[in-house]
Amino acid sequence: MDAAQQEATARARELQRNWYGEPLGALFRKLIDDLGLNQARLAAVLGLSAPMLSQLMSGQRAKIGNPAVVQRVQLLQELASQVVDGSVSAAEATERMEEIKKSQGGSVLSNTTQTTSGSGAPTVKRVVREIQSLLRSVAAAGDIIDAADTLAPSHPELAEFLRVYGAGRTADAVAHYQSHQS
To answer: Buried b / exposed e across 5-23, counting CB within 10 Å, b at 16+?
Structure first.
């Protein structure tokens, strides 16, 4: 690799750190390790070609162009943390990965039946996951915790919000959300 390629790769990894909280190579390797996957299986679950996954991991490409793939990455990160903490078994994780593979992405702001309950309103869990995804797309969990620690003395409620939604479990965030609705 020549100097120009090295510089481009370093720039791509820095962009990835800003967009996804860390370079995608590190993020994808964690998912592979935590979920017991290989690169081909990870690519299939995400809906990427194996060469595209490889380019993202190596820094030859900086950005995931498809928002549905970004959402699948976030869902896999959440699943991996549940596997690591023991709240989801390997068998359950395999089942959930199949569901994630089939997910089309979308937002609580979109007008699709997939994101809404029978009443047409977004489900609480869906809203919470969107908030979590937004926070986690801005910063890594460790950075969010650091920010919460900084805010805690003067703004404890904001600090709690950051901790719960930015680095906590979805179930805890749902409970927080429901406790703060009128």
So the answer is: eeeebeebbeebeeebbeb
Closest CA to 126 of 150, 104, 108: 108
Asked if 82 contacts 88 with a C-beta cutoff of 8 angstroms, the reply is: yes
Q: What is the pLDDT of residues 65-118, one digit of tens each?
A: 888 898 899 999 999 999 888 888 888 999 999 999 988 755 433 333 333 444
pLDDT for residue 180 is more than 50: yes
DSSP character at residue 21: S
DSSP assignment of 68-106, as one string? HHHHHHHHHHHHHHHHHTTSS-HHHHHHHHHHHHH----
pLDDT for the residue 149: 95
For tokens 């749902």, the residue is: 174
Query: CA-to-CA distance for 74 and 105, rounded, in angstroms?
Result: 11
Query: Distance between CA atoms of 68 and 139, rounded to whole angstroms?
Result: 19
pTM of the model: 0.57
